[in-house]
Specification:
heterodimer, A: alpha/beta, Collagenase (Catalytic Domain), five-stranded mixed β-sheet, three-stranded mixed β-sheet, 10 helices, 8 strands, B: alpha/beta, FAD/NAD(P)-binding domain, eight-stranded mixed β-sheet, three-stranded antiparallel β-sheet, globular
């Protein structure tokens, strides 16, 4: 792992989509720069430079990649005009908060990639795209789609909404919800054990995911097996909070060494 | 002896029975009652064989859509397969007769004069019978007419497969064997048809049967998210056909909603806006 697979990027570029409640993107960028000495640039809303015609094309493409049934492998279908109109309204409005549709993650990444890398993928910059929409990937083991927090690649996709919805909440939460207890009450009871939309801890937690994206960009391996390290691949909300906020250390010894090497090289 | 006198230009008859006591109700013969029913029904039916807005399904979203368009003077007919109007709005989840709405749905309850109370932050609860009867009354007061016990059978299509009406029949006909009742349906025409038939999405499904469009079926229940999505996807699904309420979830494969009604009311309102805009353009 000490040998870099790719060169260290000259910059980290942060893009966003929709209302990213709870994320302070400047603070996150500053954290990455402080840890790696790689400068960051906030590129803002992904769609802001798109022409009206391009937005319409993108809306159509996004409407096409809705996962209709998470239990079935995705098959592209012709979207309804109302679905295209919905996507058009959504991507045009930077304050859009509504979510709940699951998009095919890999195809979503392809659409975003087409908007960012106009002349082919560029490895010199590490691109991280934050969205407030949900995307999922197909799990070959249990043969169904699962919502994901992140999908690393070119570009890296991180879903702020997915961070709340994808990792499982404590088991007691689901049991009590099945018993008919209102979600609002349960949120109050278990607020320390999972993240909610607009949570004040969101930026802190997302710093770890952004770091995973950077590790993927440089080494092709974003994760660590140590549940105390920020690069741990968490599946439960409690694991997320532990790795990102309550772990014994920020990064395990091995990853601290690597971070130092990145920092020394990129100065 | 009956007493008869002229009062205010009208003949007023006070009837005494054999024992000399006054009867409460005016005597009317059976034939007059029958004539009144047939005449009243026929006049309305003939008038509404053609309407501006024909809503299939008299649940909360259909009633809300009907009420809002009729308030603007649009000739509106709601077709309902059951004897009763109101769909699932009489009861909440699990046959319990409390209905819940999430903010901002309570604004519509306020507007309709439906009493409600706050359950928790952002969630309000009202009595199902009170809420439903007020909504029905609001639709009636606005001028909506109803054809209940009338079941949707098919769509009327015109050039470019535009939906221009529906084919209907008496609801009881479907319950009888064909050998006994070979009752052909009849057609009603309208400038716009609204599918407010809930999860069944009967009108949309009929178009699907004909290979004109394809629905996705609704997904798993996700109350928190589905309400927004249902309202956001309310609109014209096919030329001439507007979809509201849970039929929207079925059409676009959105998550199921569960026992909250705010989206039904707001989706009905959005559907009405779409109808009004399109009627203006027509």
């Amino acid at each position: 792992m000490n040998d870099f697979v790719r060169t260290i990027p000259s910059a980290i570029e942060l893009y966003e989509e929709g209302n990213l409640e709870g994320l302070n993107i400047t603070e996150l960028g500053q954290y990455l720069e402080e840890k790696t000495h790689i400068p960051f640039h906030i590129r803002g809303n992904l769609y802001k430079k798109c022409s009206k015609k391009k937005l319409e094309e993108v809306a159509k493409e996004i409407a096409r990649i809705r996962v209709r049934d998470p239990g079935k492998r995705f098959v592209s279908s012709v979207p309804f005009q109302a679905e295209v109109d919905y996507e058009k309204r959504r991507i045009r409005d930077p304050n859009w908060k509504i979510f709940g549709i699951l998009y095919e993650g890999v195809l979503y990444q392809k659409i975003v990639s087409g908007l960012i890398f106009k002349g082919g993928v560029v490895f010199k910059r590490c691109i991280i795209f934050f969205t407030n929409q949900l995307f999922g990937t197909w799990d070959r083991d249990d043969r169904r789609y699962h919502a994901r927090v992140s999908l690393y690649g070119f570009p890296n996709l991180i879903s702020v909404t997915g961070l709340v919805e994808a990792p499982a909440k404590p088991k007691e939460y689901y049991l009590k919800r099945q018993m008919g207890l209102p979600v609002e009450m349960l949120k109050e009871e278990y607020q320390d054990r999972f993240l909610d939309h607009g949570d004040l801890r969101m930026t802190e937690v997302l710093k770890g995911y952004a770091m995973q994206a950077l590790f993927f960009h440089i080494f092709g391996d974003p994760f660590c097996e140590d549940p105390d390290c920020r690069l741990f691949n968490s599946h439960w909300q409690e694991e997320v909070l532990h790795a990102q906020m309550n772990g014994q250390f920020e990064f395990c010894q091995r990853h601290e060494v690597i971070l130092k090497a990145i920092k020394d090289r990129s100065m | 002896m009956n007493e008869e006198k002229i009062k205010g230009g009208e003949r007023e008859v006070k009837i005494n029975n054999m024992a000399g006591k006054k009867q409460i109700f005016t005597p009317v013969s059976e034939k007059e009652i029958t004539r009144a029913i047939v005449d009243g029904f026929a006049r309305q039916f003939i008038e509404y064989v053609e309407s501006d807005c024909l809503i299939v399904g008299g649940g909360p979203s259909g009633l809300m859509a009907g009420r809002d368009v009729a308030l603007k003077g649009v000739k509106t007919l709601i077709v309902e397969r059951n004897n009763y109007i109101g769909g699932g709005f009489w009861i909440g989840g699990y046959l319990m007769n409390k209905v819940t709405v999430r903010e901002p749905g309570q604004k519509i309850l306020e507007e309709l004069g439906i009493p409600f109370e706050r359950a928790v932050k952002g969630l309000y609860v009202a009595d199902g019978p009170h809420a439903c009867s007020k909504l029905i009354a609001a639709a009636c007061d606005a001028g909506v007419k109803f054809a209940n016990m009338t079941i949707f059978d098919d769509v009327v299509l015109r050039k470019g497969n535009r939906v221009c009406g529906v084919v209907v029949n008496w609801t009881p006909v479907q319950a009888l064997p064909r050998e006994i009742t070979c009752v052909d349906p009849i057609a009603l025409e309208a400038k716009f048809v609204v599918d407010s038939t809930g999860h069944d999405a009967c009108v949309v499904k009929k178009l699907e049967e004909r290979g004109i469009l394809k629905t996705e079926g609704f997904g798993a229940m996700w109350v928190e998210r589905s309400e927004d999505l249902v309202v956001e996807h309310t609109g014209e699904a096919h030329p001439g056909l507007i979809v509201t309420g849970m039929a929207v979830a079925t059409t676009y494969g959105l998550p199921r909603m569960g026992p909250t009604f705010g989206a039904m009311l707001l989706s009905g309102r959005r559907g009405a806006q779409v109808v009004l805009e399109k009627l203006k353009k027509k």
